[in-house]
Amino acid sequence: MAEVKLDIGKEFSRGWNLFKDNMSVLIVAGLIGGLLSIVSCGVLSGAMTAGLLLIVKRLQQGDAVKPQPGDIFKGFDYFLQSFLFFLIFFLCSFVLNVFLRFIPFFGHIAGFVISLFAGAMIMWGILFVVFEKLTAIDALKKLIQGISSGSMIMPLVFGLLASLVGQAGALACFVGVIFTYPLAMCCMVFAYDTVSAASAAVPEGEQKM
Predict the structure, then answer these.
(1) Is the dihedral of CA 27, 51, 41, 114 positive or negative?
(2) Which of 21, 30, 78, 102 is the most core-located residue (most Cβ within 10 A)?
């Protein structure tokens, strides 16, 4: 993957415009996905995120048949790989946070940063699983290779900011999440397109990944 320079303001602006123009379908779909994720204790989080991304992509492309909230269930086509990807990062984050709890003050700060970083990694990983049909392991390898080469640094910074936006709704007794999480997904889809276009513009032999 080629080194990518993301215009953060531009990507968020495009994501906001898409969300604003399709707010009703995205909010209802996000509500369905959020409730099922909670009821399933997180087991369906990957599939619901995948389904929401598919809806966002169709809206972005101006699909002749406008997606409906129920289309979020198409995310079950990616249930196994998305679940495995979520599970990998949940376990890693859990182990690290347990360890960091024994470090006063700085441990809590580090734990918060790790949680945000994990959120960014999960967002990009699920994008790779859904739009590139990668397995959870291959998506993880792509992220690691991108970080080591430096090509995924800026995308991960963007993902971290999008993750902050997505979690911001939790401040309003979690009600706001039905607005902020779909918005974050809209922004991530546009950012993914920019990253993919940059990668495709580099000859195969010169790509870092």
Answers:
(1) negative
(2) 30
What does the buried/exposed string (b/e) look like for 32-45 if buried means 16 or more CB atoms within 10 Å of the residue's CB? bbbebbeeeeeebb
CA dihedral 9, 62, 27, 76 (to 10 degrees): -110
Residue whose C-alpha is closest to residue 140's, from 161, 122, 120: 122
Q: Is the dihedral of CA 126, 131, 136, 138 positive or negative?
A: negative
Query: What pLDDT is attached to residue 45?
Result: 93
Closest alpha carbon to 86 in 147, 55, 130:
130
- pTM for this one? 0.88
Question: Euclidean distance between the first and final Cα of the chain, in Å?
Answer: 5
CA 205/CA 209 separation, integer angstroms? 10
